[in-house]
Amino acid sequence: MKSQKKKLYSLSQIPYFEKVAEEELEALAGIAKKRCFKKGDFIFTADQKCRNLHILHSGKIKIFMLSEMGKEQIIHFLKPMVFFGEEILFGENIYEANAQALCETVLFDLGKKDLENFILSHPRVGIAMLANFGERVKRLMKMIGDLALKDIQCRLVCQLVRMAYEEGVETNDGVEIGGLTQEELASHIGTVREPVSRCLNRLQNANLIKLGRKKIIVHDVNSLKNLSENTQSLVPIRG
User: Fold this and answer.
1) How many CB atoms lie within 10 A of CB 228?
2) 70 and 181 housed in the same domain
3) 3-state DSSP assignment of residue 183
């Protein structure tokens, strides 16, 4: 019973399900399967067949790709009350990336047939999911463009601005971005830790950010955003 309530709560917190009647959500929660993962466990790997839509109830997940040489490119981090794995509705239903739990994580999974039946009776949910999938594709295209056309400093500043808006926490000193190592930040923007460390130090010396242990405080997000649009104000660091 307690597990059923958790499933229902997770579903009700997803924006696309907000207008779905409670009794219908209860039916959906009844067929969702609970899965638990420990830190470091893989939810799925690239090229594996996609069989479920995953709803993240608790924990944190890293979505990333690996090059043939083993270099990691982080796509994004997922936090509770989001869904992923929309690939089951498109094409060959193969995952294009890897998903790994970064801490104790609980998912509720919906099988393809159950999801398709639900969407047929709730077409607005299907349209909203398509829109969400489209936004993720746009984000990936922007990432590809940034990797190809922007230097490290510009990519780093853009990433800091994006993270400040999406997951930053307001403090007396500015907006805090936490839970991220410099190595992970480097993986986000397609490089290695050393040039990122140099660039972060330059931003700190310019009093735009403050570095801490696994956290960065952005003193003024607007100033950093202006810098991302005019990178001539700092000497570019390439690599």
Assistant:
1) 19
2) no
3) helix
